[in-house]
Amino acid sequence: MRPSGRQADEMRAVSLERGVAPKAEGSCLVTFGGTKVYVTATVETTLPSWRRNSGLGWVTAEYGMLPRATDQRTRREAAAGKQSGRTQEIQRLIGRSLRAVVDMQALGENQITLDCDVLEADGGTRTASITGAYVALVDAVRWLEARGLTKGPHVLRDSLAAVSCGIYRGVPVLDLDYLEDSEAHTDANFVMTGEGRFVEIQGTAEQVPFSRAELDSLMGLAEKGINALTVLQKAALA
Amino acid sequence: MRPSGRQADEMRAVSLERGVAPKAEGSCLVTFGGTKVYVTATVETTLPSWRRNSGLGWVTAEYGMLPRATDQRTRREAAAGKQSGRTQEIQRLIGRSLRAVVDMQALGENQITLDCDVLEADGGTRTASITGAYVALVDAVRWLEARGLTKGPHVLRDSLAAVSCGIYRGVPVLDLDYLEDSEAHTDANFVMTGEGRFVEIQGTAEQVPFSRAELDSLMGLAEKGINALTVLQKAALA
Amino acid sequence: MRPSGRQADEMRAVSLERGVAPKAEGSCLVTFGGTKVYVTATVETTLPSWRRNSGLGWVTAEYGMLPRATDQRTRREAAAGKQSGRTQEIQRLIGRSLRAVVDMQALGENQITLDCDVLEADGGTRTASITGAYVALVDAVRWLEARGLTKGPHVLRDSLAAVSCGIYRGVPVLDLDYLEDSEAHTDANFVMTGEGRFVEIQGTAEQVPFSRAELDSLMGLAEKGINALTVLQKAALA
Amino acid sequence: MRPSGRQADEMRAVSLERGVAPKAEGSCLVTFGGTKVYVTATVETTLPSWRRNSGLGWVTAEYGMLPRATDQRTRREAAAGKQSGRTQEIQRLIGRSLRAVVDMQALGENQITLDCDVLEADGGTRTASITGAYVALVDAVRWLEARGLTKGPHVLRDSLAAVSCGIYRGVPVLDLDYLEDSEAHTDANFVMTGEGRFVEIQGTAEQVPFSRAELDSLMGLAEKGINALTVLQKAALA
Amino acid sequence: MRPSGRQADEMRAVSLERGVAPKAEGSCLVTFGGTKVYVTATVETTLPSWRRNSGLGWVTAEYGMLPRATDQRTRREAAAGKQSGRTQEIQRLIGRSLRAVVDMQALGENQITLDCDVLEADGGTRTASITGAYVALVDAVRWLEARGLTKGPHVLRDSLAAVSCGIYRGVPVLDLDYLEDSEAHTDANFVMTGEGRFVEIQGTAEQVPFSRAELDSLMGLAEKGINALTVLQKAALA
Amino acid sequence: MRPSGRQADEMRAVSLERGVAPKAEGSCLVTFGGTKVYVTATVETTLPSWRRNSGLGWVTAEYGMLPRATDQRTRREAAAGKQSGRTQEIQRLIGRSLRAVVDMQALGENQITLDCDVLEADGGTRTASITGAYVALVDAVRWLEARGLTKGPHVLRDSLAAVSCGIYRGVPVLDLDYLEDSEAHTDANFVMTGEGRFVEIQGTAEQVPFSRAELDSLMGLAEKGINALTVLQKAALA
Question: Cα distance from A129 to chain B (closest Cα, Å)?
Fold first, then answer.
């Protein structure tokens, strides 16, 4: 039995609230159960220097966690003077994942930055961030399109969402919360498109190496979760 | 006339929402018009090393701004690798102000950290932070009292709130928003107790030095604003 | 009684020695009793990039303390790898204060940097720094004028000086030394022009909040001190 | 056709030279074709503070690249003042992977640090690092065992190796070199045990999302590659 | 002919003013012509952790330059966030040199830190620093002896001074000033004891390698300069 | 007797292996007994900004040590976030020494960077680095010459090598290894040209100041060692 009483293939309650940041070109407050991430999308018409005059746009992401998003207060990274390895790994994942569904030529020489700040952390902050960032990204692209600033018709090739799965007490389960994540012997994050193709898979054996059969069952759960998230994204963006 | 259409002595709409952070011992989402700050209070039973075995507690604060709290995206301080001088100045002000109403002996050897993270910035982020931080602090003290962890009866000697005033187009006005703040030739922040005594005054001439009479009129406005904030704090904490 | 035996409204011995740094365009060794600050003014004909081509000049300041300016050796900030929050707060104050008396259009596209390095610290290092920096600034402006590098007749709109006051053992006193500062329950810094207008007021209750009447009496003392400093500045610059 | 003329399922020439670092408790110079990594294992009998008195050991890794391991000189991270996000991500992966085959109770309160320094980089530096680090780790464990410093019989539960696969010009291929890696539209790293179980999978779509069938074919290649590496590791350690 | 009109073997005017820093246990304002260094010696009864319980003391040094010690303003190292390689090299030299004349056993478990801050730089700042630091060190040792805090009779085994020499327009000259130093094709620093033995020699060919005969002639000049400095140190310390 | 059984004037076995780094324009694996340094030379056709459009080239060096080059693991400088003072001192020495034999006009506006990474450290890492860096530098210059990218015929004015000497148990000895270096009371590094002129001398008394006679005997040993190294360099470069 899962600590939350959920079924093995049951996601937490998910909500996607658009437009929470009045100054940003796109934004989304995303919750996966007790995990809450505040995402903003910023459009800039300047690119990093290495990307200029390429005819291509750029999408990047930054991630942070408020100090008291966690049960114990976490040290503020700005005060510590650097971002942790974990933070950098997550923000690289978010940026890379989003770029996989963007047609950079169609985007034109614009940059979109997704800032994902975790207000509450209860497991799955990176998957919630990606899922919410896609929504904010759509609004940022629409903002550009409305001003005629894009260079082609289909800036976004597909939708994008992410979910984690893991083997908890021997059972493959969908959408790990913090309690499950701490104890799971395998933990995998899946980033997938709305059409069901993979953009990123990261599977990690915490203690016990996993078999191909176990990975297959996690993939099955992930597909189910991504389908549900895709429906919610479409509803939020309608 | 003020850009917002407010009267000279009229504050923006203020709200104080307690308990927004489920994991923190105290929290408050404070809004002053378009300024929104998410404040958490963290209780720790360990002190910084220089304070240990003194029989006294400690209260400190940290301040940050989400990158897109502002019209233009601000660089994330964790990515920049340091807190700006402005950030440090503000967090030092918040901590110092709160300490002025705390009886450190009664608090006992506990530390309370106030984290003030600005979600939206439209002027007055430091005064909103202090006003909201007081509310979160009260809850953190109550949390300690409920567990018998304090060492005396009146940990908080008085309530505390803050407001800015300034001279905008020649007229002293209360609670500057961003548009006014950018243009005001004098800008002053007042931190006061519920009983109307001063904890901190910071007055700055941006362009034109100000007279004692002008300062007096700003003080009068500040007293009015603090009274209103004190009433709202009492209501929020009831 | 004050530890130094001074009257409540009596300043420490103040001296302003011009031209101590032979390479700088302006300089001043300023002493307020046991506090000694070495100030240099550097003229540069290049501006920070954000200020270029604006037709306006810029004035900025940096502050530092030699490690053994204090009773206990203080860690060297260059070795620590960063300036403390206190240092940044002080240097921001010095720069902001000086800018309030400078006509940036008349200054033209020149930058003047005031470096204030404390050789000995006995309270009031920021007020001594501002008072001495004004003297060095005048010499730097004269240096520019002598070379025809300014763009208007009255680069400096007024003179500028600063002094601290505080409530020491219940009595408002002028120009706190270190012993008084450590114990005072209210401490206020006043930056004022030669004509008696305010450029900056920073009042802080260390323990006990202060009343408007107390603030008024501190302002009265400050006006007296600033008058005396203005006379000394005029003499030094004659 | 692959740039190197290899078959789709053909690895580059791999060598594992043990004992290259005379001062280290374990070491291995590993080459995967034109990729060469110098790995040392350091045994320390002290643990990081958070791990002390737990009865458990610890295994960690650090990764670096000599500036001229690449075609263009890369900036030295020590001179830049920080490790890049990529470096941190890789060293976290190496450490996490190795820990998955270590019985921390049997290891006892000892720490083993694997330093992986890339002398030449031609794709697959992280997989070569893991494969060589396992060899160095075995020698470090033997060093501890020879001195009676371990606490149980089977410190290492299984062997460990890693290989990358990718889809290059539409064809799944094994062990990408730099030319292939730059162009591949999907790139996956597999860390597996000698018994064929997964410790880590990281699959990334660089441009085109991949299907489950494609991932399956990459897994098949990886299993083949890991088998070959396991044979070489056994030979090197005999 | 030298720019200053000095003879080849003529030092600049040297002065050693003791006791300039009222709070320090030792201090010296040293001038070598237009070079002026403010040196303080701080006694602490705690040692760095790696030196504790060894029965031995420690002497160390830090070096800094006020921003406007030079013709062009130099960036403040505290603001830059690190000490330059040059600064570190100089402060390591000063500390190492002083340690060579200290009997660490006789010093006992005390630490003396020499802070050398350059007020004006006109060549030879490191040699002036060492020469002045020896004077401050003597006073610090006397301070310890007066309190019975040393552990043996002869803490200082000899006196110590330093001077630079160089080959300027083909002629070996003593005590280079900045103009000479910029142009000299060989530059050498000598740190010697009062008895005429060498503690440190650093000779550098800026453009043209030098011969053993040239080095010999520089050594001869150095001995002459050190003798003169030793006489001045004795007088200052009498 | 020396720990290694060598004669007082006997160097360790030295080898210079050219071309070890296939991607670099020059490289050399240099060993002095148990000291092994991997040196690469990188040619870039861009110069640091302060050197551009001067018609002159530039040569610089960076130095690092793999963590387990030493008996005890040394902390990785990239992880520590800065290069130590020792590292900076050494890399400044290497760069300065090499520049002394380069005709910058003949080199033309090209930059050559020498990276010296110590794989094993047994004393003399800086002298081995210089000796090997000269070999790599020659190959980099030849690379430029072969492409017609130099501006004059004799880019290198002479060859360059370095060796350490010291007084070990009262006897002057050549080429100190780590055991000798730890105990020697005087330690000197000599950088000399093939023609026997000095480029850099750094002599340090670790405990006991040294006499001019002792320095002379060290110089004699150094000349002998440099002669031997020059022969080996010629052979390697033939």
Answer: 15
